[in-house]
């Protein structure tokens, strides 16, 4: 499943140097989220590594006001695209210090969370947040990352 997925990544930001292997990590994360959801359509996902300023430029276009503060999911602009993830690598770096997590973990979480948003899954209340966080935890575990404490069931 998800073998029909093409992840197109661009990096217009210049604030944070993107570590080697990050692009492959984003691709694996997108594939894992789609596989978990049994999504098997031929599709592209665009991922943009942004800084905080670039992220905020897209606030009014995002698909949900409940998205994680480091990623915004934008609806597709063209046929054959699931949409675009704008990931602020600057914000991911800030959150790694707050939550004592690695940059890799932040990128994986942002990618998985963003793909689920593109599929129409958002935090709309505490119950949907808890459900989605448990789903994200299962996907993170499948990718070899420790889930967020409290959502590791």
Question: What's a quick, concise take on this entry?
Answer:
The chain has five helices and four strands; from the N terminus they run βαβαββααα. By secondary structure, the chain is of the alpha/beta class.
Report on this structure.
The chain is of the alpha/beta class. It has a single domain, classed as 3-Layer(aba) Sandwich (Collagenase (Catalytic Domain)). A hairpin with a 6-residue loop joins strand 3 (71-74) and strand 4. Helix 1 crosses helix 4 and helix 4 (103-118) packs across helix 5. It has helices spanning 22-36, 52-57, 89-99, 103-118, 126-142, and strands at 5-10, 43-50, 71-74, 81-88. The longest helix is centred in the C-terminal third of the chain and has 17 residues, at 126-142.
Give the SSE map.
Blueprint: E1 5-10, H1 22-36, E2 43-50, H2 52-57, E3 71-74, E4 81-88, H3 89-99, H4 103-118, H5 126-142
Parallel strand pairs: 1-2, 2-4
Antiparallel strand pairs: 3-4
Helix pairs in contact: 1-4, 1-5, 3-4, 4-5
Keywords:
single chain; 153 residues; alpha/beta; four-stranded mixed β-sheet
CATH topology: Collagenase (Catalytic Domain)
Percentage of residues in helical conformation: 40-55%
Let me know the largest β-sheet: 4 strands, mixed
Order of helices and strands: EHEHEEHHH
- In terms of per-residue confidence, which ranges show pLDDT below 50 for 5 or more consecutive residues? none
Distance between the termini: 24 Å
Structural class: alpha/beta
Total beta strand runs: 4
Name the CATH architecture. 3-Layer(aba) Sandwich
Mean pLDDT: 87
Radius of gyration: 14 Å
Strand content: 15-25%
Number of helices: 5
CATH homologous superfamily classification: Metalloproteases ("zincins"), catalytic domain
Count of spatially separate domains: 1
């Amino acid at each position: 499943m998800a073998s029909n997925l093409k992840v197109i990544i661009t990096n217009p930001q210049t604030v944070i140097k993107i570590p080697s292997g990050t692009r492959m990590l984003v691709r694996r994360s997108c594939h894992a989220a789609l596989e978990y959801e049994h999504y098997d359509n031929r599709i592209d996902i665009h991922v943009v590594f942004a800084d905080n300023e670039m992220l905020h430029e897209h606030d009014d276009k995002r698909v949900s006001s409940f998205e994680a503060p480091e990623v915004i999911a934008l609806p597709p602009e063209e046929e054959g695209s699931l949409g675009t993830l704008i990931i602020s690598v600057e914000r991911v770096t800030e959150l790694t210090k707050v939550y004592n997590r690695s940059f890799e973990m932040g990128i994986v979480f942002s990618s998985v969370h963003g793909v689920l948003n593109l599929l129409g899954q958002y935090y709309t209340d505490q119950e949907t947040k808890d459900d989605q966080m448990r789903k994200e935890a299962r996907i993170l575990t499948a990718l070899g990352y420790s889930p967020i404490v409290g959502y590791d069931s």
